[in-house]
């Protein structure tokens, strides 16, 4: 990972990554500026070999049932530790991707295409075609594992996409502050930005906090 990619992580994610890379010297908490934790992680051998999760399916604006179903089949629901099954971040060295269960995907597909004759067998056929490197499914990557039933935890139930009327993405927040992305990352690494909400790997900043007079003039 690069310095800029690490700056996109929350403190909790940085701590998890640090402890995964240095199990002999784990950190329970971090009260200093995030930039110092980023510097500490950058000094650990092997951090450069860790890659952020890549897209698992291509952009497809056709609106077809096939594109929608395949995107859901390739969506990563969460990441688990390959050894003990505990939920971890995508950046954990032992992370294994877990997909959405077939019944939930079928429910979503039928809700969007109520007249389609779709079944779990159809979804499995799509998976076989994706796994066989069929050129018609180029760009699709299946998760490492798919559970029979979706795991519901209190944290997962509370998770919801933030209102775009009330939140900025990183790029939008940088533009609102009149900063380049490099300057935005630098300010965030020094703890000079509000703590963001992270959903599905993306950071969201409250507009009210970004647009506050004190922050805009900082």
Question: What key phrases describe this protein's structure?
Answer:
single chain; 218 residues; alpha+beta; Multidrug-efflux Transporter Regulator, Chain: A, Domain 2; three-stranded antiparallel sheet; 11 helices; globular; Helix-turn-helix protein
Question: How would you summarize this macromolecular structure in one to three sentences?
Answer:
The chain is of the alpha+beta class and 218 residues long.
Structural class: alpha+beta
Share of helix, binned = 25-40%
C-alpha Rg (nearest Å):
20 Å
Order of helices and strands: HHHHEEEHHHEHHEEHH
Strand content is 5-15%
Terminus-to-terminus distance = 29 Å
**Domain count:** 3
Kindly report the spatial arrangement of strands forming the biggest sheet. Answer: 2-1-3
> Strand count, sense and closure of the main sheet?
3 strands, antiparallel
Count of helical stretches? 11
By DSSP, the count of extended strands is: 6
- The coarse overall form would be globular
Overall pLDDT confidence? 81
Low-confidence stretches: 154-159
Note down, in words, how this protein is organized.
- This is Helix-turn-helix protein.
- It comes from Yoonia maricola.
- The protein contains 11 helices and 6 strands.
- Strands 2-1-3 form a 3-stranded antiparallel beta sheet, with helices on one face. Strands 4-6-5 form a 3-stranded antiparallel beta sheet.
- It folds into 3 domains: 47 residues; 86 residues, no CATH class; 50 residues, Multidrug-efflux Transporter Regulator, Chain: A, Domain 2 (Orthogonal Bundle), CATH 1.10.1660.
- By secondary structure, it is an alpha+beta fold.
- A hairpin with a 5-residue loop joins strand 1 and strand 2.
């Amino acid at each position: 990972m690069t310095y800029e990619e690490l700056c996109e992580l929350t403190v909790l994610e940085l701590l998890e990554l640090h402890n995964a890379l240095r199990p002999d010297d784990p950190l329970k908490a971090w009260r200093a500026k995030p930039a110092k934790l980023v510097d500490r992680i950058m000094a650990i051998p092997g951090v450069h070999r860790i890659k952020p999760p890549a897209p698992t399916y291509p952009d497809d604006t056709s609106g077809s049932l096939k594109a929608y179903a395949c995107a859901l089949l390739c969506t990563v629901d969460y990441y688990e530790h390959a050894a003990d099954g505990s939920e971890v971040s995508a950046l954990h060295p032992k992370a294994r991707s877990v997909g959405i269960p077939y019944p939930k995907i079928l429910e979503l597909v039928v809700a969007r295409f109520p007249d389609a004759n779709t079944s779990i067998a159809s979804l499995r056929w799509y998976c076989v075609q994706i796994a066989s490197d069929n050129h018609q499914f180029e760009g699709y990557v299946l998760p490492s594992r798919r559970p029979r039933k979706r795991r519901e935890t209190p944290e997962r139930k509370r998770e919801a996409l933030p209102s775009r009327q009330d939140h900025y993405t990183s790029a939008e927040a940088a533009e609102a502050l009149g900063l380049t992305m490099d300057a935005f990352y630098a300010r965030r690494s020094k703890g000079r930005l509000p703590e963001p909400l992270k959903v599905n790997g993306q950071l969201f900043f409250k507009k009210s906090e970004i647009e506050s007079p004190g922050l805009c003039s900082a």
